[in-house]
Amino acid sequence: MDSFSLQALFNFIWGNDAILVALGFISLLSFIASLFLIPYFVVRIPVDYFAEKQRQPAPWAQQHFVIRWLVLIVKNLFGIVFIVLGLAMLVLPGQGLLTIFIGILLLNFPGKYRFERRLIRYPGVHRAIDWLRKRAGREPLIF
Questions:
Q1: Hey, which end of the chain has fewer CB within 10 Å, N or C?
Q2: Separation of alpha carbons 132 and 34, rounded Å
Q3: Distance, CA of 36 to CA of 102 (rounded, Å)
Q4: Do 96 and 89 meet the contact criterion of CB atoms below 8 Å apart?
Q5: Are 14 and 23 contacting, i.e. CB atoms less than 8 angstroms apart?
Q6: Digits of tens for pLDDT over the chain (143 positions)?
């Protein structure tokens, strides 16, 4: 019925040295990138971002529509990349949950702000973000 199977995929990957090297390189690169990019983004979240009931307007909301759409497209592409890398980091070395969280912050979808507010209240996520902010000399997020 279906010629694709998970076992066939694993056999193909393990039998191909070039793919193994590429996956190892991607894993190493994403781990190193997460060490720098995650703290960079976390410390730039405004301290009161989660304090309001409704999301504040984006800084580029008043720009020309071409600039607005370009920023939205690039921001959402980065969000997708961060989520994919975060999912990979759940089984590979890296800060998977924080990477997924940053990816979600970059995406645009209905109900996103409520979802972010709920997600940030998980103790593990909240502690990790406050720890990174404290190391950078920033105040913890307020709710």
A1: N
A2: 13
A3: 13
A4: yes
A5: no
A6: 455 677 787 777 778 788 778 877 877 777 787 778 778 878 888 888 777 777 766 666 677 778 888 988 998 998 898 888 888 877 766 677 778 878 888 888 888 888 888 888 888 888 888 888 898 888 888 87
Give the 3-state DSSP-derived string for the chain, with helices as H, strands as E and coil as C. Answer: CCCCCHHHHHHHHHCCHHHHHHHHHHHHHHHHHHHHHHHHHHCCCCCCCCCCCCCCCCCCCCCCHHHHHHHHHHHHHHHHHHHHHHHHHCCCCCCHHHHHHHHHHHCCCCCHHHHHHHHHCCHHHHHHHHHHHHHCCCCCCCC
Closest CA to 103 of 121, 88, 92: 88
CA separation for the pair 26, 85 (Å, rounded): 9
- What's the chain's Rg over C-alpha atoms? 18
pTM to 2 decimals? 0.56
27: which 2 tokens? 């894993």
Q: Which two tokens stand for residue 45?
A: 């979240």
- Which tokens belong to 140? 């913890």
